[in-house]
Amino acid sequence: GAGALRFWQWGGLGLVVAACTAYLVYSATATSAEYYQTIPEVRAHPAQGEVRVLGTVADDVERLPGDEVRFTATDHGQSLPVEYTGALPDIFKPGIQVVVEGSQGKDGVFHARTLLAKCPSRFTAASPIAK
């Protein structure tokens, strides 16, 4: 009767909500798990395409003309030389964690297309500079 119909309507709605929730949890964890690689992972399995790599900025930051910066990213005792051209986040300095996105050249240097600096709670991109 009417009670059984109401049960199936609410039960169906519950299944849809549960399925949507499960998908959202899965997609959120899947993307965050693949958000970046560590330097040891990149060293062990050099990628042929673009990758995101997490590392800590070493003390060898070299600022060059034309917004170019060269530095070494370190992680778990391994290092990766990085070249990046573009605006730097305000908090960029030795000792902070960064995620660089780009590709590794045949010369072993990681050519970053984007650079994000990790705040204590999140990653921040460079803020545009008004000219």
Overall description:
The chain has 131 residues and is an alpha+beta fold. Helix content is 29%, strand content 36%. The chain has two helices and eight strands. It has a five-stranded mixed beta barrel.
What topology does this entry show?
Elements: H1 2-33, E1 37-38, H2 39-44, E2 51-57, E3 62-64, E4 68-75, E5 78-85, E6 97-104, E7 110-118, E8 123-124
Parallel strand pairs: 1-2, 5-7
Antiparallel strand pairs: 2-4, 2-6, 3-4, 4-5, 6-7, 7-8
SS-based structural class? alpha+beta
The termini sit apart by 72 Å
What proportion of the residues form beta strands (DSSP E)?
35-45%
Number of strands: 8
Helix fraction by DSSP (H/I, runs of at least 4): 25-40%
Radius of gyration: 22 Å
Question: What are the secondary-structure elements, in order, as H or E?
Answer: HEHEEEEEEE
Question: Mean pLDDT across all residues, rounded?
Answer: 80
- The DSSP helix count reads 2
Main-sheet strand order equals 2-4-5-7-6
**Which overall shape is indicated by the principal axes computed on the Cα atoms?**
elongated
| Poorly predicted runs | 29-33
Briefly, what is this?
With 131 residues, the chain is an alpha+beta fold. It has helices spanning 2-33, 39-44, and strands at residues 37-38, 51-57, 62-64, 68-75, 78-85, 97-104, 110-118, 123-124. It is built from two helices and eight strands.
